[in-house]
Amino acid sequence: MGVISLLLLIYLVFTSFWPISALYLVWLIFDWDTPERGGRRFTWLRKWFVWRYFRDYFPVQLVKTHDLHPSQNYIIGSHPHGILCIGAFCNFITESTGFFEKYPGIRPFLATLGGNFRMPFFREYLMSGGLCPVTRQAIGYLLSRNGTGNAVAIVIGGAAESLSCQPGIATLILKNRKGFVRMALQHGAHLVPSFSFGENELFRQVVFKEGSWMRNIQERCRKLLGFSPCLFYGRGLTSVHSRGFLPFPRPITTVVGEPMTVPKIEDPSHETVDLYHGKYIRSLLKLFNEHKARYGFLETDELRIL
User: Which residues are in coiled coils (predicted)?
Assistant: First the structure.
């Protein structure tokens, strides 16, 4: 969608509608930093009727286990990444699963690649739903200069985690991902684990061995571009049994866990970050083990953290 909007803007330059491109570019210059300053969200877009069909296709549901109080700010860790983060998108960017009803007074945001907000027109669409760049400046603004009652969801595993996405296997890239904990400490934002059961069931991916030439290409793309090209397939347009690029209709259940109180420390030490990072991992493991049997995993299945 971002690429299409960019090509459309370039195409209009060579037509009689070139003033549209010119005016938009002027607007873009003046509005360049808006994504880093809380964005520009619209409730009516989050409540589009099309999101209900989107939810029911899988279906997707949001499970609340504890209250989130509007007097606090939160960082929600979203796991796993999967291929397209469908559970996180549906629950935190649309109102189809009833986030506002379950957490009154809480404004959810979802952090994504900053490069997406450099695409003309596409950036407006992203901001209108509550998406923000996954940068220190953008997240810091929401946690410190946008009042209270903000919940920023971060898919912590990122592009690296998408490479290990396989049905029936829960592998998270988390051991060395500590920046979100440091930000929580700097702003006194409470940490909340969440897990989307079924996220890894939506596509089938070709997983390449470590050290193979294709895996090396994926890793280089991740480091240079921020995303990893994956070879995957889903269902076709005509049949669930045919291959295509639609996700398989598998239930996704996003369980939001108990908020973990975090003190405000302007310059936390490495030891303090490690301490709360360890607490977060234990809280996430507890959440997974308590709900895994109910939402598609066996009692013997374990959450692997790399």
Answer: none
